[in-house]
Amino acid sequence: MAIPQEIRDYNAAQSAGDKRICSKLSKTIDANLPGAERKIWHRHPVWFLEGNPIVGYSKLKDCVRLMFWSGQSFDEPGLAAEGTFKAAEVRYTSAGQIVESDLERWLGKSIQIQWDYGNIVKRKGKLVRLK
Fold it and tell me: Which SUPFAM superfamilies match (predicted)?
């Protein structure tokens, strides 16, 4: 299944170096999350499983940030805590920094370990583990 046009447009709008990062991320994520819903959400590419955000990336001022919504629970080196919930991130300034074996392992864990972000508002900010 092809990467949606809106994600390809997002990637194409980046500078040359960031475009390479975004392209590599989107292809690897898409290949490792078959059947995931993917779309632009809050102005950047995000992949969802059963309505729950799993992974996405965004262009920051000086890098591209890859974020896993449940990443703090992966117990993985290379991922830094982000925010007050369970998210973790890694930041890239070149496509060469992406270690594909790490990314694939994190994506596997993102399927197995999920916190229910889809219902966080309904639960008044309380996260419940799905898997």
Answer: YdhG-like
